[in-house]
Known about the structure:
The complex is a heterodimer. Chain A is an alpha+beta fold. Helices cover 40% and strands 25% of the residues of chain A. Chain A is elongated, with a radius of gyration of 22 Å. The termini of chain A are far apart. Chain B is an alpha+beta fold. Chain B folds into two domains: 1-41; 47-95, HU Protein, Chain A. In chain B, α1 (3-13) packs across α2. Chain B is elongated and about 60 Å long. Residues 104-108 of chain B have low confidence and may be disordered.
Amino acid sequence: MTKADIVEQIYEQVGFSKKESAELVEKVFDAIKDTLAMGEKVKISGFGNFVVRCKNSRKGRNPQTGEEILLEARRVLTFKPSLVLKNILNEDMPETDAPTAQVSIGTAE
Amino acid sequence: MTKSGLIEAVADRTPHISKKDTEIVVNTIFESMAEALRGGHRIEIRGFGSFQVKIREAREGRNPKTGEPVHISAKRTPFFKVGKELKEMVDRVPLEAVEDSNLGDVSS
């Protein structure tokens, strides 16, 4: 699914023209981006939270050369899916209750 | 910012469209994205990022309180990978602003 497919959904389901639908979808993502760019989190109930996190500077290593490098402090964006979304994805997931697997641990009982 | 805040922000940018319609659009966007993920599809929003469903294998876990072993079934989890443009936008934030908003996170 791309932005064009989302635009198509708005066009079909909401009834805006294609041009308006495209403009609206663009504005929604722009508003989210601008908010995050200011360091503010965006919480979409039923979907998830987008949160800006600070990472401290740390020493890293170039895995290829083993050379030590300093990784600067930076801000990264994380997404935490809502429970609702996680449940939606697992609606038709078969419950694989596997008591046999539990026995293999050996410490049960 | 919550979803209603987002609706306000979009409504401010689109004065020719009613807030009610803006609300329907925002809801439809996230519903259609959730629907795509439910179907196992990948979502790519250029300049923003991509969403993908990954499968977490079934595993043996432990109840951290009792130490009792528990079976955790396989499940699907959505993953988000930030796009290049947004990644750079976020990293330009003044440090203080982010620290303030993280403090807010603790209290909420």
